[in-house]
Amino acid sequence: MRKAPSVVVIGILALVLGLVGFFVLSVFVPTRHVTKRPLSLAEFTAEFNRSDFPATARNICFASAGVGLGGRALVFRFDAPVPDCIAFAKAEFERYSRILFRNPSEYPSSDPVPVDFVNDRPRKPDLSVFWLNNLDWFDVDRIEEGVTIPLSSRGHHPTIWIDTRRGTLYEWWTD
Is residue 15 within a helix (H) or strand (E), and if so which, with residue range? Predict the structure, then answer.
């Protein structure tokens, strides 16, 4: 006659399965935050606790995602006067440079250049791995006259484009 498994064995088995399930969920299932409609600056600041956008920013669309060990993504756009977009882009690029480089003399230039000089027409990044593949508002393909900050040889700077006709800034970053 076989003995029934003890409560301790069943408890240990349940604990192990629970820990495995928690690990799988925390490492492989993405977390996403996506605006459902364009936000005002006040709405955006309250919802995402980010206050570095220009005071003139409006029509803010934002998405972020994390896939545990698979990385993170940050995607947004906003409308603002072109000088405000450029000032924000430079500050944003320089903020990443301070994180990536120890010596300020190594910082790449944060000066925007016309998109034509980069030889790379803006195109929507493939963010499907982050489950961010339906961001219709990230319409960088509509840029007719734009500027960008050339990426450095060291990765992890954001890609930033500014549509100088419409006064729209686009940014995406992944790690």
Answer: helix 7-28
How crowded is residue 158: how many other Cβ atoms within 10 Å of its Cβ? Answer: 19
> What is the DSSP secondary-structure string of 48-103?
H----S-TT-EEEEEEEEE-GGG-EEEEEEEE--HHHHHHHHHHHHHHHHHHH-SS
Coil/strand/helix, residue 39: strand
pLDDT tens digits, residue range 9-30? 777 877 777 666 666 555 566 6
- pLDDT, position 57: 98
Q: pTM (2 decimals)?
A: 0.80
Half-sphere exposure of 21 (CA within 13 A, CB side): 6
The type of residue at 62 is F
